[in-house]
Amino acid sequence: MRLEPKPAPGLVSALLYPAGAILATLVIASVLVLIAGASPFTVFGLVAKGAAGSRFALLETLTRATPLIFTGLAVAVAFHAKLWNIGAEAQLYIGGVVTAVLGTGALPLPGPLLVPLIALCAMVAGALLLLGPAVLKTRFGVDEVVTTLLLNFIVLLFVSLLLEGPLKDPMGMGWPQSAALVGEARLPRLIHGKRLHLGFVIALVAALAVWVILRKTALGYEMRAVGNNIQAARFAGIPVNRVLMKTALLSGGLAALAGFSEVAGLKGNLSLDLSPGFGYTGIVVAMLALLHPLGVVVSAIFVAGIFVGADAMSRAAGVPSYIAQVMVATALLTMVTAIMLTRYRIRWR
Amino acid sequence: MDAIDILLTGSFWVAVIRIASPLIFATMGELICERAGVLNLGIEGIMTVGAFTGWLTVYLGGDLWLGVAIAALAGVAFGLLHGLLTVPLGLSQHVTGIGITLLATSLTYFTYRVALPEVTSPPKIEPFQPFPLPGLSGIPIVGPALFNQTPLTYLAFVLVAVVAWILTRTPVGIALRAVGENPAAVEAQGISVTAVRMGAVAVGSACMAVGGAFLTMSAFNSFFFEMINGRGWVCIALVVFGSWRPGKALLGAVLFAAFDAYQVRLQQVTGGAIPYQVFLMLPYVLSILALIVVARRASYPKALMAPYQKGER
Fold this sequence. Notes:
Shape of chain A: globular
Number of strands of chain A: 2
Oligomer: heterodimer
Distance between the termini of chain A: 5 Å
Radius of gyration of chain B: 20 Å
Number of helices of chain A: 13
Helix content of chain B: 55-70%
């Protein structure tokens, strides 16, 4: 068999194949639900209800989507330039560390000054963390996939070290967690008494900003040129290495904002369970959105809905909530296949 | 006991070889895939699947070797999926590999919860026991380390020799290497690039899965979540460190394991003066440093990560 590029993917196939991908994901998940001894219709009904069936559910989904928008954007930016940043998890945690260090009373500033300053410092830390692998890639030819993956483990151990040492909350009853943030450092809640916080709005603004950078600036053009064909970009006189550096800084900074927003907006302190894999899920979010920054918002909410819904479903129907991770991973694989099929035709001989 | 004495104790070298064994399996698996031109980032998830399926087979009453076979088959299944998506369909090997890892890991955890809904502590199995090789196991230090290990460890070393022999001395190996260097030339010989790459990814993934199974069936005796803990990613670094050669990769795995075993013992010697996380970080830091050292002169397979389409240039 061989692949043949289609002249121009029609609207029908552009919609049909992704719809097929979602259908295939649901079919595979249904089989697993049946194996677990439950009815797929009941389970999917409970997932949908748990994700969007009430005002509480919907707000919870948006809250969960917030870090995923940031990590999804981080991955989308990096993948645009084919910089394979698999280390959003580490950059997220570094953002959380900076927030916990600066937000627990180290800086006596009023909120309107303190919060942006912390966000900026978190971004710088995350950006520098990804700059390392980017420099190793451009200067020494070290594959950034492996270095960013390994850094995830290093940073998590570093956070654990901090939480059992210098950042440990003296009032924490021995739990490895930081002290609570001071009131001035917290992101306000959007609705009184609900968990959704200002971080969600910042995430939306970030998505818009990334869209502008990618579509309307020279940097965005250069990033796509590098991603499409690095040799051609080099011949065209684009400073490839410098573009990759800027991409790394932007991507790392965005992922760090996820950690900032979770600590300052939701948790109020730093702990080792800050992220249940938001960095890795960000890859799925970005790919489902075809790396489009505004699409990232939609896919982050969709993926968050599956996770929040599956938690609720698991409590009610007894099917393990890991089904959500399986669905998200399956959706990633079926969606990349679907996108390929919209662009190529399979010739069997 | 001080820091140097550790290196002279027999138990240290026994631990080194035990820690190296799963890495050897998985590194050989990744090496086979990459020599054929396919990066397999599914390694971390495939090791998880192997660890779980091997253990589950024995837990459900199967024989230990049946467990190894089932683990290998599970590895083949995920390898074929990765191969199907990246070889004939030519999808991004990075994205697909990460997707395979996410899928394999979550599917394992889901199955674990479905199969054992009520367990609080991980159930134990009777793992492989050390099998002293008569005569050789009596040699001081070297004997216990190399000749009083479990059968799976011996298999790991045999695997390195077999992989090296196949790659350099057999037509299959030559085809496999050629597919990773110059696929068009292989196709011109009338050999299917797709078939060779698919086969390599399937076999390589089986090795990775057996590496995972080593953890639950030989090193430990139960399955717990996140037990692979980045070993797969370390193996990817080891393949680069070993310049895609089985012998050098074996050396890398043993060096890495020696370092890992050493840091555990050094923790005890320093008695908590340095936080234990620093020691746990060192193997990962070492992997990155090793990559930096070798990256400049690494001669990677020329067609690595390049999908091949018949008739396309």
